[in-house]
Amino acid sequence: MGLDSVILLQEVEDYFEITIPNDVAEKIVTVGDFSSYVHKHITLQTAEKCKTQVLFYKVREFFCNELGLSKSEITPRTILENIVKIDIRKDVWVKLENHLALKLPKLSKVDSTGKPAIVYKFFGLKKVKSEDGLFNHTIGELISWITSLNYNTLFDKNGLCSERDVQLVLLGFVSEKLSVPIEEVKLESSFTSDLGID
Length: 198
Hints:
Layout: H1 3-16, H2 22-25, H3 31-40, H4 51-67, H5 89-100, H6 109-113, E1 117-122, E2 125-130, H7 139-149, H8 151-154, H9 163-178
């Protein structure tokens, strides 16, 4: 384990108030591995309401009011680019962030311009780097990202109610500590090959 991974391990232990033995830590390869271990070693509480469900209803209400859509047009599977036109995306994003009073993932250039690639020169050759914008994803994914980005606001670390709560908190925690955009942190993300930690 490199220094970065040791620091992350200690921060997770401190946050969740658990101890992860060295032999177990050496076997943690992905964010999902981390989440599974944490889930098994904390006490879950009973929930009155599912955080992501409550957030979905708020997001749906916003899109219905802001874009004049019906509730049936807004589901967790709805792809964002199908309901929010390019020319109003920045404005809608700011309004949604204000409406929720929560942090949202940052928009990329492709989200606001519709240009799907970045062209750059490398030793005189043109290279194209594809960029996957947030609006190519579903409202369900957006809800997960918002929940993870705001884990400190939405969750009491001693009041997590499900394995999914643990996953969302850990995704947000890893994103924050490693300074990796939330949409790039997945349960299957390898700490070394995907997230660049040694």
